[in-house]
Amino acid sequence: METFDVIIVGGGLSGVGTACHLRKQCPGKSFVILEGRESLGGTWDLFRYPGIRSDSDMHTLGFNFKPWQEAKAIADGQSILKYIKETADEFDLAGHIRLQHRVTGASWDTSSASWIVEAKCGKTGKEVRLRSRMLSMCSGYYNYTEWHDPAFKDTTKFQGDILHPQAWPEGYDYDGKRVLVIGSGATAMTLVPAMADGGAEVTMVQRSPTYVVSRPDEDKIANILRKVLSERAAYAMTRWKNINFTRYFYHRCMTQPEKVRAKLIGLVKKHLGSDYDTDTHFSPKYNPWEQRMCLIPNADLFRTINSGKVKVVTDTIERFTEKGLLLSSGEELEADVIVTATGLKLHVLGGVEFQVDGAQVDFAETFTYKGLMYSDVPNLVQTFGYINASWTLRSDLTAEYLCRLVNHMDTLQMRQCTPRLREVDKGMPQRPWIDHFSSGYMQRSMHLFPKQSDRAPWHNPQRYALDKKMIRHGALEDGALIFDNPASASDQAEVIDLTLAGDRKAA
Fold this sequence. Notes:
five-stranded parallel beta sheet
């Protein structure tokens, strides 16, 4: 059985980033990336719908070690995919990547201090087994093959095409067609103006409004800094600027929600004019950042509404009809195409089944440790980014932590690290994995996720400043993370052999 120091599950932003951190911080360690799909890129290779782009700026969504060099900070999906693949090439990851290896199970064995990972390969479905000392789960948080189904009535009656953004048909022609896009999240906000600019007559059908913020797709300050500073210096300063602006804005949303709400809605009215029914279509019932905000570049949604190419309808759907949708108000909307941008279906740790010494792991019964490990689950680090900032800010921190763990266990000559509740932690309050966030896609699945509490290290702050202190600078040996299972002489010899093999390959 092949043995690695680290197995990374997932070949998207998180997986590629983690591999690069291992290259830099643990240069002698062996690792492999197992990616279930036919290509690297994760989200940015999966989604092919019109207009696919980031809803975070690339100076914070990009890796902390590789400057984003393009002019557009709000980037299209192909540019992000190119960036990921460039990074993989620069760090010579090709020989470490196994495509079409979908991980289905992982079993921890204390006696050998290792994970046995099972994966199905390619179209044949042949199963392979690999062993690793550490397991890094970088598979994201949503199901790649299924999405949320609101169970609309009578969908089979509709005579046109029903599409979902997660399974967009290649080369689909919508020019001149009447399109209904169901949803008001980031996907819908991207699809609607893109399809309108592509010749479709589009109506966005939403059950309730979302906060929408327009920003230029180019960061002028970033582009000026790149002309006068080195790429790395300009990138670092831009990241600092954007991180702190996001932090300030989020703090304002939490402490002065009514003022921020009035400001945001006022900006929408400025774009759409006083005659537009902003109160119905762009005035959410919840406070800012109780759900993720929608970022639109260059006011493209507002531009297409003002041009007459796009309409917004706020109502609930009674059922599908032969011609389109019947709304609860009694109005029928006719269409040639209906796009169900109805949200994600979440997965806990990629849907992989886990066992520890033969016992099934129910992650809903565990507590999260620093938002990246789980109580009583050894040598497992999961990457889960931010819901209120760029995902990669936290994935970089998590990768750094993984590398610290690997090196520290070598120093201690211990093979196992396990978060365990201390006596003082027993009976502590239980809170959801993601707290104070009302988005449907999260609320539908929170019961499946680990719990958190109100105290370190058993919480998931979702705050970059706190995470830097806790993850990057916090002590590894804190009394809750237990290092044990010392390496025997034969284990140490195996580590030396693997290290020498890695050194020879690098040479």
